[in-house]
């Protein structure tokens, strides 16, 4: 979807499928500071021959909410506004999109500034951030204690899943991963309906791709309840957590799963399909809701 | 290398090559609480046939130094003591291994307890940890400001690298990645001499595998100056940083690189080889020190 330059005057292709639906009533004021994902560089091959190739971007993006610093993420930079919002949503640091007044990304300062209506979440947020330092702070993407609280409040409704649906989506997915094909070094995540891929995002961090999808869903009021989440990366506990916070009942990965990811999926009632190769795959959880082709 | 059960009474194979060298004079008191990396689980394939497979473990490990909580890492759990030490070393949170009295991992509490001699680093450490919250905290593994300071103090001496050496190591590496072959969902990192793979570690986090190698190097007083660091994962800025803090002059990855990873390698004078396929690869930095086969 092409967007004309916002606050930063850039024009970017956000790589997202246009979603045919009415615009929601409220949308925060946003910059459109998405960057081109790849950079051309000169390399040399094993025989000494010069090769011009593309490599993936990687930039720090520090998220501020009402002047309170929250976190620094390393990102490809294609969807910084959605990433910042999705991060705040998936960490349960902001509850309602209607309380977000604006999202302004300034790459010169490597920062995303989120202003809330009234601008007074600072104190509440600070108390949530303190809990991070005390309780946890996972090496792979920080987890706050309020996130864990949100997890068991999330409402996962099991969804019947046809083998046909999985195959249809896997086939549709072969059209995507443009950045990976050009430059490698990125993971892709997709939000899918039972018919097709709705949103596909690539980033240098698996977590960022998932958070960017969450941000887009939050902005567009897209429910996760009838959706399928796909990742090229592994289904670790954190990815399962993020899917749960988006209320998505089905997870599919081309890659493997971890034991803690599986336990969490079992606890939360999330269908987990992994080790996809062509039309072959393994169902690790949720087989009761799976309908094999006749 | 088999180790008899330590404080937790387990016997584990730590998957590391024994290093033929004299024991160093000082070694901290350590538990050997390494866990088996994989769990057997029952899955179902796309046709409904049952399949018994192995999946990778994933456990939180919270690191405490003299009762001060530092961070929680999600890990496979095979080398928790080396991981904890390597993390503290690579973040420059503890300067000398000789100040570490003991490392005790207790899985019942999902914690690694590091005691320093005198036990009074608490205050100094706390001042370093506070800087994290103020300055940065990268989504992919936390970075403290003292780490960045350490980075530009690190001493990288360029190393002549023969194409023959790279091919020898790549060939030797094909014997490794046992956990990945069994269960997927892990990344592997290796410390190599110009002759062979010296240490190979797999973990659910790329950063953890690198930190575990750093911990082993720190304990065994292995210099990085004449070594090559290999990773199955992408060479992002954080992996380049960790290699620099280990003073390793050559990085090789089967996967791609990021723009920030490349810039950092250029600044620090680290040779960067990536996109390895068989004996084909691309040299992104350090071509001046590379000697092609005649």
Provide an overview of this structure.
2 copies of one chain form a homodimer. By secondary structure, chain A is of the alpha/beta class. Chain A folds into 2 domains: 2-152, Ubiquitin-like (UB roll) (Roll), CATH 3.10.20; 161-291, Cytidine Deaminase, domain 2, CATH 3.40.140.10. Chain A is 29% helix and 30% strand. Chain A contains 8 helices and 17 strands. Chain A has helices at 80-90, 122-135, 145-153, 163-173, 178-183, 206-220, 237-245, 259-268, and strands at 2-3, 12-13, 29-30, 38-45, 50-56, 59-65, 68-75, 100-106, 111-116, 161-162, 187-192, 197-203, 228-231, 250-253, 271-277, 280-285, 290-291. A 6-stranded mixed β-sheet of chain A has the order 12-11-13-14-15-16, sandwiched between helices. A 5-stranded mixed β-sheet of chain A has the order 3-8-9-6-7. In chain A, helix 8 (259-268) links the parallel strand 14 and strand 15. In chain A, helix 1 (80-90) packs across helix 6, helix 6 runs parallel beside helix 7 (237-245) and helix 7 packs parallel to helix 8 (259-268). The radius of gyration of chain A is 19 Å and the shape is globular. Chains A and B meet through strand 4, strand 5, strand 6, strand 7 and helix 2 of A and strand 4, strand 5, strand 6, strand 7 and helix 2 of B. Strand 16 (280-285) of chain A pairs antiparallel with strand 4 (38-45) of chain B, so a sheet runs across the interface.
């Amino acid at each position: 979807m092409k967007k004309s330059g916002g606050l930063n005057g850039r024009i970017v292709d956000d790589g997202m499928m246009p979603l045919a639906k009415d615009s929601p009533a409220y949308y925060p004021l946003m910059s459109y500071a998405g960057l081109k994902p790849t950079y051309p560089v000169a390399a040399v091959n094993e025989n000494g021959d010069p090769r011009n190739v593309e490599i993936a971007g990687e930039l720090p993006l520090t998220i501020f909410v009402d002047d309170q610093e929250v976190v620094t993420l390393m990102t490809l930079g294609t969807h910084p506004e959605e990433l910042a919002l999705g991060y705040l949503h998936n960490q349960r640091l902001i509850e309602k999109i209607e309380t977000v007044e604006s999202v302004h990304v300034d790459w010169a300062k490597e920062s995303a500034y989120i202003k809330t209506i009234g601008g007074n979440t600072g104190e509440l947020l600070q108390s949530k951030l303190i809990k991070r330092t005390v309780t946890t702070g996972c090496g792979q993407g920080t987890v706050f204690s309020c996130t864990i609280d949100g997890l068991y409040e999330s409402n996962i409704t099991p969804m019947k899943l046809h083998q046909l649906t999985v195959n249809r989506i896997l086939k549709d997915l072969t059209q995507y991963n443009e950045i990976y094909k050009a430059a490698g070094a990125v993971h892709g995540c997709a939000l899918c309906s039972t018919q097709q891929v709705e949103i596909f995002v690539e980033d240098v961090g698996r977590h960022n791709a998932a958070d960017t999808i969450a941000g887009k869903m939050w902005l567009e009021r897209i429910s996760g309840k009838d959706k399928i989440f796909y990742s090229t990366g592994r289904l670790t506990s954190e990815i399962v957590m993020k899917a749960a916070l988006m209320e998505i009942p089905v997870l599919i990965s081309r890659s493997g799963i971890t034991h803690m990811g599986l336990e969490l999926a079992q606890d939360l009632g999330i269908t987990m399909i992994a080790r996809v190769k062509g039309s072959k795959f393994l169902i690790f959880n949720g087989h009761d809701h799976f309908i094999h082709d006749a």
